[in-house]
């Protein structure tokens, strides 16, 4: 029965994982939004399934409970396969929930609701990052201002302003929650971080009119410093080498084939995730009746 319950989810994972590589051919802003859709679909479909299979595992261990007994048929009846698979799923679900709560607590601590759009931090360290929250406060160290010339500083500030203007902290939070709840999505979440940084890189160039080589050099220069808080978005935060390489090459426009492939990937992933949720809802409906 587990094949029936989890098979759509396995296919969803496979298509989303393969399709996430196709997104690299799109504009960074489109790739980031598309990655967010894939992560959301996979996470929403996975979490209920993990709990259902986990409850079934408890039933196979002999726990007597109406809810648990209802889930027993989701796993093979022969021992110890049902109990092992069920307990593994339950462990992933419980640990994922704990990790997600920690992410939310950290977000609450780091989140900035202040009205100041810019904070100058008096330190010799070289960094700049955008804090999560409605204020989208940009923190810049005095060390960074001293280390960069005017043109380099303009690129850094433009980069952070893109993060702030488009509320990239929301995308990043979703990626962190997805990777906490569903560990196999970590690579997809990392790709989302990369797309967010590429989005800020390219839009910063458009806004400043700076040369691509100068932007690549600036990113590499700031990357020598440490990163900001886990939930912050900084110019040297993710995929520095790959981003610098992309900036050293001419900007490419996505092809029609790439757009179609990406749309198909998103459509199929969302459809399969909905199919998985449908089965979970059916089982829940049986319990309620």
What does this structure look like?
Helix 2 runs antiparallel to helix 8 and helix 6 packs across helix 9. The two termini are 21 Å apart. The relative contact order is 0.17. With 289 residues, the chain is mainly alpha-helical. The protein has 11 helices and 4 strands.
Radius of gyration: 22 Å
- What fraction of residues sit in β-strands? under 5%
How helix-rich are the residues, as a percent range? 55-70%
First CA to last CA: what distance?
A: 21 Å
Largest sheet: 4 strands, mixed
Strand and helix layout:
Blueprint (H helix, E strand, L loop, with lengths): L1 H21 L5 H33 L5 H6 L9 H30 L7 E4 L6 E3 L7 E4 H6 L2 H16 L2 H14 L4 H23 L3 H11 L10 E2 L5 H9 L7 H33 L1
Parallel strand pairs: 1-3
Antiparallel strand pairs: 2-3, 2-4
Summarize the model shown.
By secondary structure, the chain is mainly α. It has helices at 2-22, 28-60, 66-71, 81-110, 142-147, 150-165, 168-181, 186-208, 212-222, 240-248, 256-288, and strands at 118-121, 128-130, 138-141, 233-234.
């Amino acid at each position: 029965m587990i094949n029936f319950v989890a098979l759509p989810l396995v296919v969803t994972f496979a298509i989303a994982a393969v399709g996430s590589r196709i997104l690299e051919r799109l504009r960074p802003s489109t790739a980031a939004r598309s990655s967010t859709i894939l992560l959301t679909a996979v996470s929403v479909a996975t979490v209920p399934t993990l709990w259902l299979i986990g409850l079934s595992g408890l039933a196979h261990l002999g726990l007597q409970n109406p809810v648990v007994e209802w889930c027993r048929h989701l796993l093979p009846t022969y021992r110890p396969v049902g109990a092992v698979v069920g307990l593994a799923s339950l462990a992933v679900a419980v640990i994922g929930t704990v990790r997600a709560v920690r992410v939310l607590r950290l977000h609450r601590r780091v989140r900035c609701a202040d009205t100041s759009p810019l904070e100058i931090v008096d330190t010799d360290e070289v960094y700049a990052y955008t804090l999560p929250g409605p204020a989208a406060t940009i923190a810049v160290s005095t060390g960074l201002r001293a280390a960069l010339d005017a043109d380099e500083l303009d690129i850094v500030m433009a980069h952070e302003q893109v993060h702030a203007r488009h509320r990239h902290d929301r995308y990043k939070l979703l990626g962190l929650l997805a990777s906490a709840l569903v560990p196999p999505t970590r690579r997809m979440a990392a790709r989302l971080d990369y797309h967010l940084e590429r989005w800020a890189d390219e839009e910063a160039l458009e806004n400043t009119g700076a040369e691509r080589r100068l932007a690549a050099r600036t990113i590499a220069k700031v990357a020598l410093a440490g990163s900001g808080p886990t939930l912050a978005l900084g110019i040297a935060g993710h995929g520095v080498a790959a981003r610098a390489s992309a900036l050293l090459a001419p900007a490419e426009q996505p092809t029609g084939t790439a757009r179609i492939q990406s749309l198909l990937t998103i459509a199929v992933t969302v459809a399969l995730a909905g199919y998985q949720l449908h089965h979970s809802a059916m089982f829940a409906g049986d319990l309620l009746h």
